[in-house]
Write a structure and sequence with these properties.
The chain is built from 10 helices and 30 strands. It folds into 5 domains: 93 residues, no CATH class; 94 residues, no CATH class; 64 residues, GMP Synthetase, Chain A, domain 3, CATH 3.30.300; 99 residues, no CATH class; 102 residues. The longest helix is centred in the N-terminal third of the chain and has 25 residues. The strands form 8 sheets. Strands 8, 10, 11, 13, 14, 15 and 16 form a 7-stranded antiparallel sheet that branches. Strands 24, 26, 27, 28 and 30 form a 5-stranded mixed sheet that branches. Strand 27 and strand 28 form a beta hairpin. The protein is 24% helix and 32% strand.
């Protein structure tokens, strides 16, 4: 709809305004409720004021703006300049009040009327009143006709023949009665993740010669993780052959990420012509493909290119007039796809507008998934199947994020828990270039998911003996002295691997001490552990145990497995 809205006046309002005009009043004067200071109207053009006959505006009801007609119980007339004549409308403290900054409409009578009114018989049924109401009826009818004409110019509000004329502008016609229709189901390629958009007008055919051609009537989107969806398709002409179930099995144009297309049921014919609502849906899809020069046309045109994952469009980037910045995220770097994007932008961009095309920045992310398996857990090939499935689902969620999107941990956890064998999952994201910093996408930036994922040894809800499995979280602070030429990152990696391997060997009844950890690390030639400054904290079942050099030990409980949670390695310079 246009910003210039047209609203016809109801018949009673027209009668009211005509009566006010006929008797020397001022009608439909628009004033703004003051934002600051006293809530009063002091700028009426024909003041001083004898009487307010109508005052309407918007008031606040429980936080919701509500149209209202204000009455004498809501306002008074006041004399602001002390000349004995009222010239200000003042709203009462205990009455309804307009929302500051909103527009009010006022009908009123000034104290001095420029021309005397010779007509005074305005009672219902009088000659003057009857003639006035006749004019009002004609005006109201004409305004309704104008409203019909106005609404007939827009896709959302046009109806019947008016809608036919609107959609004809983009080459769309209403499907007549008995036109062949069929439901087509599109299925995703199992190796393709992310969002897939199937544009309106996609043609599906059968194996006949010549083939029966059916075009989809609306856009269709397969979200990340969604395997298949159906959409209505209409025959290319009213004479298109009726097809049996499963006959439509080939795409006229290959769609990236789509493996199959089929019709689960046979084609059919509607007894009536296409409805207005159905025609609007089909016209919107056609509009995407035919309209140029708009942000929506650019966005949809770029997204329809196979190999494009997402696009972010920004008008007036950095205050530059006449420029639109397009940050395009690709499934993978491909010069052919980038060339097609540039060609499509040149085809769709507005005249005189420069489109600054950039490849969306890619932020690497490493994923670690700590699984808790139901029951006593699984192992071997079955465990590989579980972890492979988690990796595929979580990677698809991350890869489907649009530039600058918020990473929602709950959505990732839900993807991991889709396997009934998994009881719980803790997913940790880390940026290799900024260890320890939270992973947050900046505007125009997408994720580059590093694979394979890291899967620490999974926990089980119960041990084979039936004991409930638990996990003890181990936090380590390990100061070290580095050997010549060794970096802190190298030492940290070696310590992390050694600690994980050592903790995995501790079974029921084993004791964890700082001395034992130091013994497990002493074989490394990269560093020396400063034991007197080191400490270990174990958290299990809501309790904490601190281990220092020569002080304290922790005994592993039945069914418990220790897991390294945090590791703080820092260099001590002697």
């Amino acid at each position: 709809m246009s910003d210039l809205e047209y609203t016809p006046r109801p018949y009673p309002h027209i009668v009211r305004d005509l009566l006010t005009t006929l008797t020397g009043g001022t009608v439909r004067e628009a004033v703004t409720a003051p934002v600051a200071g006293p809530l009063q109207l002091n700028q009426l053009a024909s003041r001083p004021i004898r009487r307010i006959s109508h005052l309407e505006g918007v008031t606040d009801v429980a936080g919701t703006p509500v149209p209202v007609r204000f009455t004498n119980a809501d306002f008074d007339l006041a004399d602001a300049d002390n000349d004995g004549l009222p010239d200000v409308v003042v709203f009462r403290d205990n009455g309804r009040k307009p929302i500051p900054g909103t527009t009010l409409t006022v009908n009123y009578y000034p104290t001095q009327i420029a021309r005397p009114v010779p007509l005074t018989d305005l009672n219902v049924g009088s000659v003057v009143r009857t003639v006035l109401e006749t004019f009002a009826r004609e005006i109201a009818q004409d305004e309704q006709y104008l409203d019909l004409i106005y609404r007939s110019a827009f896709l959302d509000t046009a109806e019947g023949s008016g809608l036919d004329k609107v959609v004809a502008l983009i080459g769309v016609t209403r499907l007549p009665a008995r036109h062949p229709l069929v439901e087509v189901r599109f299925s995703r390629n199992a190796t393709t993740g992310g969002k897939i958009t199937i544009p309106s007008g996609t043609v599906v055919t059968d194996a006949a010669t010549p083939p029966a051609r059916y075009r989809t009537v609306a856009d269709l989107t397969l979200e990340a993780g969604e395997q298949s969806r159906s959409v209505l398709a209409a025959g290319a002409t009213v004479d298109t052959a009726m097809v049996a179930a499963g006959a439509l099995d080939r795409l006229e144009t290959t769609l990236g990420g789509i493996s199959t297309a089929s019709n689960p049921a046979a084609a059919y014919r509607e007894s009536a012509a296409e409805s207005d609502d159905a025609l609007r849906v089909r016209a919107r899809g056609a509009l995407h493909g035919s309209v140029c020069g708009t942000l929506d046309a650019l966005r949809f045109g770029i997204l329809s290119i196979p190999g494009v994952k997402a696009v972010e469009l920004t008008e007036w980037p950095d205050g530059q007039a006449g420029v639109v910045r397009a940050a395009v995220a690709y499934v993978r770097p491909d010069p052919a796809v980038e060339k097609e994007v540039r060609r499509r932008i040149d085809e769709l961009r507005p005249a005189g507008i420069r489109v600054d095309t950039r490849t969306a920045g890619r932020r690497s992310v490493r994923v670690s998934v700590a699984l808790v398996l139901g029951g006593t857990g699984v192992s071997g090939a079955e465990l590989d199947r579980v972890t492979d499935g988690v990796e595929e689902r979580v990677a698809a969620k991350l890869a489907a994020l649009e530039p600058g999107a918020l990473i929602r941990p709950a959505a990732l956890s839900a993807a991991a828990l889709a396997d009934p064998l998994i009881a719980d999952a803790a997913i940790t994201l880390s940026d290799p270039s900024a260890p320890g910093a939270p992973v947050v996408l900046q505007p125009g930036e997408v994720l580059d998911v590093l694979r394979p994922f890291e899967f620490p040894t999974p926990q089980a809800e119960r041990t084979p003996t039936g004991v409930v499995a638990t996990t003890g979280e181990v936090d380590l602070v390990l100061p070290v002295q580095l050997q010549t030429g060794v970096t802190l990152d190298d030492a940290t990696t070696a310590i992390r691997l050694a600690v994980e391997a050592y903790l995995a060997t501790l079974g029921t009844g084993a004791s964890l001490t700082l001395a034992a950890v130091a013994s497990a690390l002493q074989s490394s030639p990269l560093f020396g552990l400063v034991r007197e400054q080191a400490r270990i904290v174990v958290e299990s079942a809501g309790k904490f145990v601190q281990l220092l050099d020569g002080q304290g030990s922790y005994t592993v409980a039945a069914g418990e497995q220790l897991r390294q949670r945090t590791l703080d390695v820092h260099e001590v310079v002697s």
